Amino acid sequence: MNPWNPIQKPAQVAEARLLEAILSGHFAVNSDLPGERDLAAQIGVTRPTLREAMQRLARDGWLDIQHGKPTRVRDYWQEGNLGVLSMLAQMPSKQTPDFVAHLLEIRVLLAPTYTRQALEQAAPEIAARLVNYADLEESPSSFAGADWELHFLLTQRATNPIFRLLLNSFQDLYQIMGERYFASAESRKRSLTYYAELLNCAKKGASLKAETLTRAVMEESLMLWKKSSQPIIVKRTKPSS
Question: What are the φ and ψ backbone dihedral angles of 64, each rounded to 5 degrees?
Fold first, then answer.
């Protein structure tokens, strides 16, 4: 039996088509969109439906709508907001090659702090979660899921609620890139070492040590990701004469 999928509303369809046109370059950055009547006809929706979709895209930083002027496609990397980031995270085919690496650089900055805050607030709970991590199933999907659950718990117990809002925006992408990262046996082995060391920190309530540990591990994870993402260059040998 096929899984149930909710039917998209016309405004959602219009929004998706506009996004596709923007990200493909059909409607270039800083260009003006066609008039409302023509654009609605191109997309195949009514004008009220188009307005709803455009308002949603304007809210997230994709469009600049001003009364009496043509609607402009914003330079979303310069003028966008977290709505742009969240949407790009859901569209792997539209991401730049270094998109995930940029996200991991942000994690290097954030994860040490929310880990320290979480241990300050709920070290016994975090220790209880980590106890079972030594017996994780040896598969990329198992490690990716467990790693997500750990960081989700850490952001939940951190005192700054912004951490969990940011992490929630990337749940689907986290699983996708996690499975790719944990396809490496070396990455799984290093993560098991991290989980064990973080468990010791949690048992001792050593929040500052956990912060330092997490920073080092996040930096190493970024390095491993960049290494795994490098294209394989095949050297051609000259044919013998």
Answer: -115, 110
pLDDT tens digits along 61-87: 899 999 889 999 999 888 887 778 777
In the prediction, which pLDDT does 240 show?
43
Judge whether 144 lies within some domain. Answer: yes
Whether residue 169 is found in the same domain as residue 103: yes
Nearest to residue 177, comparing CAs of 76, 106, 90? 90
Query: How far, in Å, CA of 152 to CA of 51, rounded?
Result: 36
Do 115 and 218 fall within a single domain? yes
Task: Identify which of 75, 81, 79 has the alpha carbon closest to the alpha carbon of residue 60.
Answer: 81
Please name which of 215, 212, 187 lies closest in space to residue 201, comparing C-alpha atoms: 212
pLDDT of residue 221: 86
Among the listed residues 54, 65, 64, the one whose alpha carbon sits nearest the alpha carbon of residue 12: 54
Which tokens in the block code for residue 77? 């990397």
Q: Stretch 171-175: mean pLDDT, rounded?
A: 80
133 and 29 in a single domain? The answer is no
Q: Which residue pairs, CB below 8 angstroms and at least 24 apart, start in 59-62?
A: 59/83, 60/84, 60/87, 62/18, 62/19, 62/22
